[in-house]
Request: fold
Amino acid sequence: MLGKKMKFATLLLTLVLILSQPAVFAQETDKYAVEIIGAGVKTELKLTLEDLEGMPAEAQIEEAYIYNSKTGEKSAKVKGVSLAYILREKAGVTGENAEVTFTASDGYPIDPQSLQDILNTELKYVLAYEVDGEAVNNDGIAENEEITVYRKVKAAGEFGTVFKMVVKITVGEPVEATDVSEATSEAIQFTDITETYQFAEAAIQELTKKGIISGMGDGKFNPQGTLTRAQICTMMAASLGYEPKEYKGGFTDVNASDWFAPYVQAAADAGLFTGYTDGSFKPNQPITRQEMAAVAGKAAVENGVVAQEKMDKFVMEKSKFTDKDSVPAWAANAVAWLEAQGAFTGVAADRFEPAKVVNRAEAAVILYNTLFK
Reply:
């Protein structure tokens, strides 16, 4: 009798163990480091640390990040994965302009980020799974999968470039290029046009009213942010009244499904932009001053502001810029003509710095002064 009881108890224990296995497995599969969701992505993701560590070499970032704290400037050796890579290659972001929200597991409030900043190759947002050679563990629970988001500092003394315990990244509804073309009848008051960017306020207001440029939401314009080649294509198309065109597949890194493809085609057909020798267009590459000048000059010719023959008579030899010799030949006539028209007022004084990336405020000034002033 005792033997039967022992056998029954053993059988019961075995059944309990077997039945409990699926629940344990489900709990394990629900573990992840960060979730990426929202109307601005095609594919929602739940990424584990193993997923992040297993991403290809071109996605990995391992370098020092400088950040500011209450006790002064600090540095951390960060190892992780590019957030821009994840959003583009894995989540399939559906636009360039959107608000991105980071949610922390402890409920600590984090200011919304702009998708434009995240996709900016200079800011290098990274999902760090290792900092200073150690696994990330800010919540004190070793078994939790955890990441910290870092980005490069944009301005000296800037705070808010490290985001701890981020468990969810939400990409909002994209602001498509077609939305930009809809003119607004009243001026929008942007709250982040500080004294530093007062030189651009009138241009920003006028271009916003014309629907050529837009803010980033929440009353922000983000004047210090950069603009990509694709975004400049859409601005130029809106400025010149070009209709978007069916993409013909002329560039290796532009797909027909990309939101900017019709505008790239329109700009390319008009001769405003050309690709690179390797067949690429580099749509997500921030635009430089020399590129902006060349495009603005071509737009001025297209719009009848100046004849090409007249622009060709303007040469850098007569420029007042002390670094005029560093302006490449392909941009020289445009830079010289734009300088003479005062297009760079507030943007460049003694030096032009042709290879410097244009920020949103500067781009607004150059475009407004060239085509609308």
User: Anything to note?
Assistant: The chain has two domains: 34-171, 178-371. DSSP finds twelve helices and eleven strands in the chain. The first strand starts at residue 34 and ends at 37.
